[in-house]
Amino acid sequence: MNDVSLSSTPVGTAPVPDHVDPALVVDFDYREPAGMEDGDVYAAYSRLHEGPDIPWTIRNGGHWIATRAEDIKWVQESHELFSNKEKSVPAGQMPPMPPITFDPPDHSRYRAVLNPYFAKGRIERDYAEKSRAIIAGLIEGLKPKRECEFISEFSVIAPLMIFWDLVNLPYDERDQFLTWGQHAAGYGTDEQRIAAFKAVQDYLGKLLDRRLDEPGDDVFTGISQWRNNPRYQDRWEIVGMAELVFFGGQDTVASQMGFAMLRLAERPELQQRLKDDPDIIPAAVEELLRRHALSCTGRLVRQDVTRKGASMKAGDLIMTMNPLSGIDPKEYPDPFTVDFDRVSAGHNSLGNGPHKCVGQHLGRMELRVMLEEWSRGMPIVRIDPDKPAPSSHPGPVIGMDQLHLTWDT
Ligand code: HEM
Predict the structure, then answer these.
(1) Which of 55, 89, 93, 382 could tie 26 with a disulfide, CB 3.0–4.6 Å?
(2) Residue 175: which residues within 8 A CB-CB, separation 6 or more?
(3) H or E segment at 383?
(4) Which of 357, 360, 398 to mutate to test the pocket of ligand 1 (most atoms within 8 A of CB)?
(5) Which residues sit with their C-beta closer than 6 Å to ligand 1?
(6) pLDDT tens digits, residue range 243-279?
(7) pTM for this one?
(8) Is 254 helix (H, G, I), strand (E, B) or coil?
(9) The domain that contains 43 carries what CATH number?
C-alpha cells in the first residue's frame, strides 16, 4: 500500500502559528460559511473579499486562503512552490488519486495515461453527437411535464449517462449506477452516500480487471494497462485514477449545469438570446464557467514564500477558493452579472498549470450541447414560485441542492 496517512486533523479552531501576521487572521470555514441564509454560497463566500487578499483562517486545522483571481492563478501555476500532495482541507482526508495528488514529474506520467482519451478532437468527433442524443432524450421526457426539479431530474443524470457511453459500460447496469450517482451526489441518506462510494469503488476495481483481459478503446482500458508500465507500483494507482476520472466528471458538470440553469431561469432574456443567436453559445459557456467556478482545493506550501504580506512557511496549507475567482471585482467589473457579451479576461474555473482539468473539453462540450438542445427544445422556463426557492451548498465542490422550474408548453 501507499504511505499517505488518512488520519484526520482535528477540525475546529486551531492556534495561530507565530509566523502569521495577526492582521491577516480570519474565522472562516469554507464548509460552513456565515451568510448562507439566502441559500447563495457565492454571496456567502464573497464576504472574504472584504478582508485581506490572502488571509489565514483558524478553521479546519488552520490554513491560508487565496481569494483573488490573480493569486489563485499564481498558486495553480506555481507547482514548485505549492505541492498537490495535500489536496484536502483539513489535511489527510484524501487518498492518493493520480494524477491530482502528485507533483511533476510523477504527475506527468499518470497524466499521460489520461490525456489521449480527453483530447478535444476525440471528444468532439466521438462523443458530441452521442451526448446530444442523451441530452435531447432527457429534455423530451421533461417537456410535457411543465415543471421539474432540474438538479435531480436532469443535471445529476446527464453527466452520468454521457460518461457511461464514453466508457462503454453495459446498459443493463446503468440504472444501478444512476442510483449510486444520485446517492453519491447527496440525494439520499448519509449511509446511502457512503455505500454508493464503496459500491462504485468495488465496481471500478472489477472493471479494471475485466478491461485488462478484454481491452476496449476507453479510458478505463488505458488506466488498467498502467499495470504493464515498468513504473507500476500497486493497485491503488489504477483504482485511484479510475475513481478520480469517474467522480471528477460527475458533480462538477452537474453543478455547472445547475448554476447555469439558475441564471437562465432568473433572466428569460438570456434564454431568448440563446434561441435567437445560437452562435453566442460557446461564449455563454465560458461566461457561465467564469461566474460559477466550483472547487475549493488545498495545496501544501513547499518552500517559504511571501506574497501580499502573507508569510507562508513550508508545511502550511493554502486553499485556492476557485468560486471567488470569477466573482473577484478587481478582475471583472460587475462580476455577479452574467453577460454573454463580456469581453472576458479568461477564468481560472478549470484550473491552470500542470493540473489544468483533464476533462475540460468534455465538460465544455456537455455544457454547450445542453444549452443548444435546451434552447432548441424547451420553451422559456422560470423559477417555480410555488416551490422551495433555489439553494446551493458550500464544500470542496460547491453545487445546487434544488432548482424547481416551471414553463408553459
Ligand atoms: C465543467 C466541469 C468541470 C470543472 C469546473 C472542473 C474543474 C477542475 C479543476 C479546477 C481542476 C484542477 C484542480 C486543481 O488544480 O487542484 C480539475 C482537474 C481535474 N479534472 Fe476537472 N472539472 C470539470 C470537468 C471534468 C470532467 C468532465 C472530468 C473527467 C471526466 C474531469 C476530471 C478531472 C481530473 C482527472 C483532474 C485532475 C487533473 C490533474 O491533476 O492533472 N473534470 N478539474
Answers:
(1) 55
(2) none
(3) strand 382-383
(4) 357
(5) 76, 99-100, 111, 244-245, 248-249, 252-253, 256, 294-295, 297, 322, 349-351, 355, 357-359, 362-363
(6) 999 888 888 999 999 999 999 999 999 999 999 999 9
(7) 0.94
(8) helix
(9) 1.10.630.10
